[in-house]
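> forwarded from #structure-qc
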């Protein structure tokens, strides 16, 4: 996808120095705590920084894990709750360092939420907020309409999507929706959360989302249709964003972009209402215009890259889930029966009611309906809740069958598998939220454990988090800025059993088990890119874990 004309450096990926895998952020004192070992052993110890043994435990053979290709042994130390900094040791192996504390996720939570600021487009990043990762203004020129290059428009702003500098409406709507739902469901967590971003009269997470929403609204045409994306014609080489000066193009309107943009604006309109009535009104008007356009275009209008363009496509085969999402959000916002009727009409087609993006949006629509404060159809509501509970149950069984505790099937290890992992974390969290039973809390933390080091590569897949974390993601500024340490808080796409970029094809031998198809190499866009919608579900999951209400 992100082919560039520059030659990547030929650095080989680092080898993990550990064979005992822990969550490198750490564990809650009262939480479940498991380390995984990929060698036979009968017992283990936990040592502190002075090397003093603080806990002895028995290792249990889990068995062969097909997706990892390892026979794994588990070290459960859930009953050890003393706060401190430790390593697990067994035979002559040791783990990375980890903490036991209430605050173990504070730093990673901050970094993952702040990542969106570092991806802001159309403005410079000030040293005051970005430190050494500051840069000049980027992508401020107006964009030419691809279909009529005599016309140009100002669509500056929003977040860079990923390792590339494109801005794509469906992807952006999805990421913003995850953040907004995190805020809507766990508001107390975010009210005081400081991200050190430019001042506003909003909680920082909402201020950050507003940056994307303002851009999304600019992507809407007068008649309500929303342009699918704004990018250069070809992916930029690995330069800083301000040095990417090729002309920007606005590509065709798609029904998915129109629906997603309107849906997230409807969701946002309700959330921002108490803070800024005028902004809330603009969001609502955008959403209404999207609905108007969709009503006049009941047919699916997909998107395909023109031949001369190689930036992200974000094609979808159908738009039923996107339409369901916008009508559900509009009903939740307004209580107007016409949106309820339109929503019901979208249910004729088959799609998932627990999928949380970036293409399948049914789960977000179901969530909108489940949280709706207007009159709802109780049978339908019950069905939506039941879908989440059923999916959580299925994922629990999957996680129980995985040596590393993750709710992932072999087929889930595709491009951006860490998003699927975290979307599954969201399903557990949503299921708990709906029943207030906290049945799945340990399963939510288990998905984070995997992301942060309890996996057979040993990597923490978040830049800057942990002793052995990815540091060379496919992320243009991170490579071009000449700074050794990557911008923190970036979630890598993670293992992909179909490595499909030249570096990955060279680095990953054929037959490598799915969970090990990973390399921390800047060239590997199919294994090690970052995107806004791989970060956003982690913010949601951490919001759930932090919420004490
Ligand atoms: O996240 C997308 C992944 O699911 C697809 O398999 C892949 C190939 O089509 O594209 C990914 O999206 C990329 C987008 O097209 C451009 N920006 C970077 C995205 C992450 O790699
Ligand atoms: Zn930019």
């Amino acid at each position: 996808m992100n082919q560039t004309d520059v030659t990547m450096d030929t650095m080989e990926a680092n080898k993990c120095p550990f064979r005992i895998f822990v969550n490198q952020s750490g564990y809650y004192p009262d939480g479940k705590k498991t380390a995984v070992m990929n060698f036979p052993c009968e017992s283990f110890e936990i040592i502190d920084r002075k090397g003093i043994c603080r806990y002895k435990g028995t290792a249990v053979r889990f068995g062969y894990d097909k997706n990892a290709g390892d026979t794994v042994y588990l070290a459960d130390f859930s009953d050890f709750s003393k706060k401190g900094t430790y390593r697990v040791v067994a035979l002559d192996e040791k783990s990375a360092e980890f903490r036991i504390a209430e605050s173990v996720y504070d730093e990673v939570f901050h970094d993952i939420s702040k990542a969106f600021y570092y991806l802001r487009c159309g403005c410079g990043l000030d040293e005051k907020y970005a430190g050494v990762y500051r840069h000049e203004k980027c992508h401020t020129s107006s964009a030419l309409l691809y279909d009529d290059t005599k016309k140009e428009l100002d669509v500056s702003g929003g977040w860079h999507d990923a390792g590339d500098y494109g801005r794509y409406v469906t992807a952006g709507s999805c990421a913003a929706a995850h953040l907004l739902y995190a805020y809507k469901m766990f508001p107390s967590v975010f009210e005081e959360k400081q991200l050190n971003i430019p001042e506003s009269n909003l909680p920082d997470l909402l201020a950050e989302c507003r940056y994307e929403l303002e851009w999304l609204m600019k992507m809407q045409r007068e008649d309500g249709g929303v342009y699918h994306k704004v990018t250069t014609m070809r992916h930029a080489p690995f330069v800083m964003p301000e040095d990417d000066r090729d002309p920007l193009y606005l590509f065709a309107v798609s029904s998915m972009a129109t629906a997603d943009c309107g849906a997230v604006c409807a969701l946002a309109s309700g959330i921002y209402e108490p803070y800024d009535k005028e902004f809330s009104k603009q969001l609502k008007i955008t959403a209404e215009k999207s609905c108007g356009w969709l009503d006049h275009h009941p047919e699916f209008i997909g998107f395909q890259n023109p031949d001369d363009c190689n930036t992200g496509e974000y094609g979808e085969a159908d738009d039923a889930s996107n339409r369901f999402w916008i009508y559900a959000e509009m009903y939740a916002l307004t209580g107007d029966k016409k949106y309820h009727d339109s929503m019901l009409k979208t249910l004729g087609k088959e799609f998932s009611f627990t999928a949380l993006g970036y293409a399948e949006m049914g789960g977000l629509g179901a969530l909108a309906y489940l949280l709706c404060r207007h009159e709802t159809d109780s049978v339908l509501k019950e069905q939506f809740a039941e879908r989440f509970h059923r999916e959580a149950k299925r994922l629990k069984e999957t996680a129980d069958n995985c040596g590393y505790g993750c709710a992932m099937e072999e087929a889930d290890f595709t491009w951006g598998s860490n998003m699927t992992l975290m979307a599954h974390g969201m399903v557990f969290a949503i299921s708990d939220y709906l029943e207030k039973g906290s049945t799945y809390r340990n399963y939510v933390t288990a998905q984070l454990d995997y992301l942060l080091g309890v996996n057979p590569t040993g990597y923490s897949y978040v830049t800057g988090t942990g002793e052995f974390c990815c540091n060379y993601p496919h992320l243009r500024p991170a490579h071009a800025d000449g700074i050794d340490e990557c911008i923190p808080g970036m979630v890598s796409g993670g293992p992909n059993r179909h490595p499909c970029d030249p570096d990955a094809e060279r680095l990953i031998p054929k037959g490598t088990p799915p969970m090990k198809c990973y390399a921390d190499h800047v060239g590997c866009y199919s294994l090690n890119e970052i995107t806004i919608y791989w970060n956003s579900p982690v913010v949601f999951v951490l919001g759930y874990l932090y919420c004490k209400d």
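QC bot note: The two ends are 43 Å apart (CA to CA). The pocket of zinc ion (ligand 2) is lined by residues 121-122, 138-139, 160, 165, 241 (CB under 6 Å).
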